[in-house]
Structures are given as structure tokens and as C-alpha cells.
Design a protein that fits this description.
186 residues; alpha+beta; 8-stranded antiparallel beta sheet; 4 helices; 39% strand; globular
């Protein structure tokens, strides 16, 4: 009988830990940096991203600032890393019962179970693309995800593996507007 006591204690601890982790995570509103990596069979997308990063790094400071300002008006900013973007999420964004809807000629289905979002999408293009993945809300200031995307490049099917991590930076979004909000005319 005494040999089963440690097992009962371990089971009780695991049950308590499961209940703690079962509490839904709500992300913080504010400025987020989304870091991502992509992998394709032919490596062309990775090469194109490296080329774009190199070109951005060679721009004179005033042109880089002009590009950053233009992106900020669209709700996106370049992150500190070459493979990251910054976005602004409002209180309404983090309280929404679904991830932001796909834009343009795209449809999206998202279901949440605990702190896991299962997401699938289909876009008519060009180019046509579809995919599915999973986004895990880890803490109010972090999330991570893995996605499989199918698209067409140079007339040939292309499979893309994407991993992403989100990190909350601060409450103030600065010049970066929430996605979907238009910049005010000057």
C-alpha cells in the first residue's frame, strides 16, 4: 500500500498542473514582434528573403525610414531580426474569439481548444494557396505556431513549412497602427 502513495501524489500533482494550464491564455494588447522561419523544397523562398534583407540593409537611412513609415501605416513594422515583423494588437484583437480573418479572396476556419488554435485557410490567389496549422498561446506575452502551406511558384506546386514565434514587446505601439486601421490623411 505504501508503494502506491508516491504514485497517488504524482497523479494529484499532474492533475493540479493540468488544471493550471487549462486556464485560457489571453494575449496582451500592444506591440508584438513575430519571428518566423520558412523552409521550401527548392530553397527559392529562403533565397529571396535573404536577398530582400540584404537590399534593405543597403538602403540609405532616409529610404529605410520611408519604407518603415509606409509599412507602419499598413500595420506592419520590420523587427530587429531580418525574419521578423512587428504588429499592433488592440484590446479588441486579443479579446476576439478567433484570429484575425483572412483578407482578400481568402476564407479561413479557426477553432480553439484551450490554448491551441487550429487554423486552416484557402486563398484563390494569385497565386492560389491553402494551408493549415496550429497556434499555441503559451503565456500572455508569447505564442508559437507551425503551419504547412501549399502554393504555386513559377507554375509549379510549392510546399512551405513555416514556424513562428510571437513576443509581446510593450503596450505602446508607437507609429505602427493596428492591422486593418487606415492611416489618417496628412
Amino acid at each position: 500500500m505504501n508503494g502506491s502513495r508516491p504514485l497517488l501524489c504524482l497523479a494529484a500533482l499532474l492533475a493540479a498542473a493540468t488544471q493550471v494550464h487549462a486556464q485560457p491564455v489571453q494575449l496582451r494588447p500592444g506591440l508584438w514582434e513575430n519571428t518566423f522561419t520558412i523552409k521550401t523544397a527548392d530553397g527559392k523562398a529562403e533565397a529571396a528573403m535573404k536577398e530582400m534583407q540584404a537590399q534593405m540593409a543597403q538602403l540609405p537611412p532616409e529610404q529605410r525610414k520611408m519604407m518603415a513609415d509606409m509599412m507602419a501605416r499598413q500595420g506592419v513594422g520590420l523587427g530587429d531580426k531580418g525574419n521578423s515583423v512587428r504588429i499592433c494588437m488592440t484590446q479588441a484583437d486579443v479579446e476576439r474569439s478567433a484570429p484575425p480573418a483572412a483578407e482578400g479572396d481568402c476564407s479561413q476556419k479557426a477553432t480553439r481548444s484551450g490554448n491551441i488554435w487550429q487554423i486552416s485557410f484557402r486563398c484563390s490567389g494569385p497565386p492560389p494557396s491553402s494551408g493549415e496549422g496550429r497556434l499555441s498561446l503559451v503565456t500572455p506575452t508569447t505564442y508559437q505556431g507551425d503551419f504547412k502551406i501549399r502554393t504555386v511558384e513559377d507554375g509549379r506546386p510549392q510546399d512551405v513549412q513555416m514556424t513562428q514565434k510571437g513576443q509581446w514587446l510593450k503596450a505602446d505601439c508607437g507609429a505602427i497602427r493596428p492591422v486593418g486601421q487606415q492611416a489618417t490623411p496628412r
